[in-house]
Amino acid sequence: MADVVLEDVNKEYSNGFKAVTDLNLRINEGEFLVMVGPSGCGKSTTLRMIAGLEDITSGTLKIGNRVVNTLAPKDRDIAMVFQNYALYPHMNVFDNIAFSLKLAQRPRAEIKERVLDAARILELESQLNKRPAQLSGGQRQRVAMGRAIVRRPRVFLLDEPLSNLDAKLRVQMRAEITELQREVGVTTFYVTHDQVEAMTMADRVAVISEGILQQVDIPMKLFNEPDNIFVAAFIGSPSMNLMEAVVRRKDSGLWMELGSQTLAVPESVPNRRPALERYLGSTVAVGLRPKDFEDAAIASDHPLDQRLRVNISLIEALGYEAIAYFEVDAKPVISREALELTEEHLTGEEQSSTRVHARFHPTTSVRPNDTIEVAVSMENAHFFDLQTGRAIRD
Ligand code: ATP
Prior knowledge:
Helices cover 24% and strands 31% of the residues. It contains 10 helices and 20 strands. The strands form 4 sheets. Strands 6-7-8-3-9-10 form a 6-stranded mixed β-sheet, with helices on both faces. Strands 13-12-11-14-20 form a 5-stranded antiparallel β-sheet. A 5-stranded antiparallel β-sheet has the order 15-19-16-17-18, with no helix packed on it. The site of adenosine-5'-triphosphate has 13 residues, from helix 1.
């Protein structure tokens, strides 16, 4: 095992395209670190640089305190699992898992012991005589994992290993890979575009956009304290509602003016984020997660000055919750990257209202076209500077 350290790493492809810029990242020994970001943001490039499959243009890569920038992939003591986990179709499961050990000419007894050990961890013991074609997608994925762990590498590198599996299997394999990583305890770098995968599997998540690292932290910290608008919009499902608001002072407290309506900001918020006071009279981006809304008929004791009056356009009853959609007449804030993600392109004139999605308790009796009051937990609101996109804190 070893930690992996990237210091000021840059990657420029031969056509001049800059895929990774000034990347500083430490994957701690034994840690499961997931790098997540939209397609083309430089995740695979980062992984391939760690693997040695791609040159580093500038900067330093260390594995276990040793600079490995120019070390050949085979000498880096890493094991990789890719999206297309090509198994040898003519070999059975045992031989597929054993392949690298045979190549390394390990003694027969050791090979057998290591393969059986991997098969036990992966629950493949009863499949060892089967060929890949006789296995399910999930089992094939486990054989690919077996080929990686049997080598007992210092570092695992996984590039979108679940993207070829159907949704149900992906959820199952998510848990299996997480358990496996905990069991073998190998430093792991895992790359995906799926933020749910990242949030559920990782010890820490590194969010990257256009080759630039945005934030690295434990999943709950990313969710609760996103550093900027990109992370705020990218992490969370359904995603955060982001719209423009003017910061006002009324009596002693702060208020947010969202279009034609106002919401009081509880005193604890500027106490935690003193910088908010500096934005008095200015427009900021306010972020509200779907969970921070409730049908006021249900949250009847919610403060009266933290409510919006809205007309419900759609309600989706899911049994365990109901997702309500409504418009607020404040301008939406959509980061450029988030816009690409949602594939919603703003055309023609600017939008002057924001379509909000809110999670209500399933017992709500709200119907489409009802005009109702919605309770908003302003205690949990996020605030961002519109120029820099950065969170307004201290
Ligand atoms: P995806 O999930 O779609 O694979 P990614 O985040 O893994 O995306 P990379 O594969 O790292 O993205 O690519 C980052 C950017 O670098 C992309 O814009 C890609 O087009 C570009 N790129 C990748 N390989 C090369 C290359 N050999 N030459 C030039 N540009 C490249």
